[in-house]
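Human: If only I could read backbone structure tokens as easily as an amino acid sequence. Underneath my words sits a plain record pairing an amino acid chain with its backbone structure tokens. Take your time, and here it is.
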Amino acid sequence: MSSLSLAVRDSSTMLRRNLLHARRYPSLTLNLLLTPVMLLLLFVYIFGDTMSAGIGGGDRSAYIAYIVPGILLMTIGSTTIGTAVSVSTDMSEGIIARFRTMSIHRSSILFGHVVGSVLQTIISVVLVGAVGVAMGFRSTDATVLEWLAAFGLLALFTLAFTWIAVGMGLGSPNAEAASNNAMPLILLPLISSAFTPVDSMPGWFQPIAEYQPFTPAIETLRGLLLGTDIGNSWWIALAWCLGLTVLGYLWSKAQFDRDPK
């Protein structure tokens, strides 16, 4: 078999392994999924009318339309924490060391984690989106092309942060440290435009919210789903996705290729 065929075969095996782990132990994914769902319920039903008035909307439905895109991207950041924990667990329990001694393609171990995590995260995004629709979110002004572009953005964003999470997991001594190291993936959306416009924040805080990966991605996704103008945020979001994917891949590969201590 060629090197490519071996890589595909071994990556498929590792993917099945990770999906079986996720199916047998769903508690981690469900716990991480609760965070965006609870924030969606809290901000819509408790603060919805007040927040809607703050952004110039008429009632709670206007705020649902505003907040759902940000919550979808927060779901990506939240769910990929499970990837960091899973990778760190494999490293600390010795299964990765065992895989190193076997006749399998080395990169398939990482690709199995990445592809499995991407699939789980997309399912999580769909579930959270379904909750948003049940609460009243509608995307009637978006065209089919805009829907496809929105899905592509979510997939790229998921891939980028999955590679970053893999790097965090490889660099952590245990699962608890991996979970703590990956906390910025949840905190960054809280200081973005997910819940309130950037121009409503204090002047000194606006650069923090504006110059980070979540804000341009949220603004792009919001424009695509609501059928409004996205300005230049789309290429900024795309640049973040591509840059983080390359960075995460190189970081993960460098750590994985190091000789074990």
Summary: The chain has 13 helices and no strands. The mean pLDDT is 85.
